Amino acid sequence: MTHADAQKRHAELAEEIRFYDHAYYVEAKPVISDQEYDRLYRELIDLEKEFPDLASADSPSQRVGGKPLTGFASVQHLKPMMSLENTYSQEEVRQFIARAQKVFPGQQLEWTVEPKIDGLAVNLRYEHGVFTVGATRGDGTNGDDITVNLKTIRSIPLKLRNPKSKVQSPKSADADLFADETNRLPSVLEVRGEVYLKLAGFRKLNTERVAAGEDPFANPRNAAAGSLKQLDTRIVATRPLDMIIYNAGQIEGGRVPDTQTQFIDWLKALGFKTPDKLWLCLGEEDVLAAINELDAMRKQFEYDTDGAVIKLNSIPLREKLGVTAKAPRWAFAYKYAAEQAKTKLNAIAIQVGRTGALTPVANSNRFSSPAPS
To answer: Which end of the chain is more exposed for a tag (fewer CB within 10 A), N or C?
Structure first.
């Protein structure tokens, strides 16, 4: 096979694998058998072994690195990652909306409400549609460069889709997901979101750790954070990590939507996983109703949530509201009361791990009730 033939076939394989990864890890709709997927992936790997220059940064083969890292470098966010002011009081939510309304008297403001995912905030940077740097929030200005670990998360695209193209199989005759994408995508795009550990995967992971004589993780958030700080990406790749994108940082060039609702649709078109639910609200009563509706349904999600995030829908109006030293004036977080539980301890069993470590396991009856607000 000539280099030109290999390059053409490699591009076809990479596009197919990206499509199947998106269908499986983002859409949760697998369209190919594991056996067929593995065959395509092995063919791609074989081509890269024969022609090493084909293993570009956005190749599906770059999901898992080789040698463990010796540490994490510091990287500066192109735009600071700010925290949100938060409250447990719905009256303070009303006050937040009223403060914004005073800036725009007589204007009907639209708001969005999204789940507040209890995970680890992360910034992803794309240059000409290719994932180049991923970092933790850190101090808001600088974070740890965890790019190699983030590449193990299959729902994070290594190369963005053309936002004007329909998501379709690469085998379709008119499929051209990346044609002229540099003319349509920003030359630099920072997106922000939350990395989390799926609840079912968290339970399975803790079961395996106890069986191995290791301490279980306290909660999914700690497990996600600990996973991303691993120096060996092969360990990170075994953890059921996922990421949801809901915000942007620095954007240079290209055109982006003017509202949060359109922005979420745009993120989906680029290939990102986005919030499971989003409410568009007019006024404080709509916002409070959405908060209560989210509280009633959030147990159905595959991740932990600890609140609701309220955002001004209009992105141009956000610029007029501005920010404080630490937080935007156009977004606010309402936090749900923590769940409390009474437990009757029946007995304590001792499990022996394969290393000989002893782990106490409680046998109890648990009676849950919401904490008072």
So the answer is: C
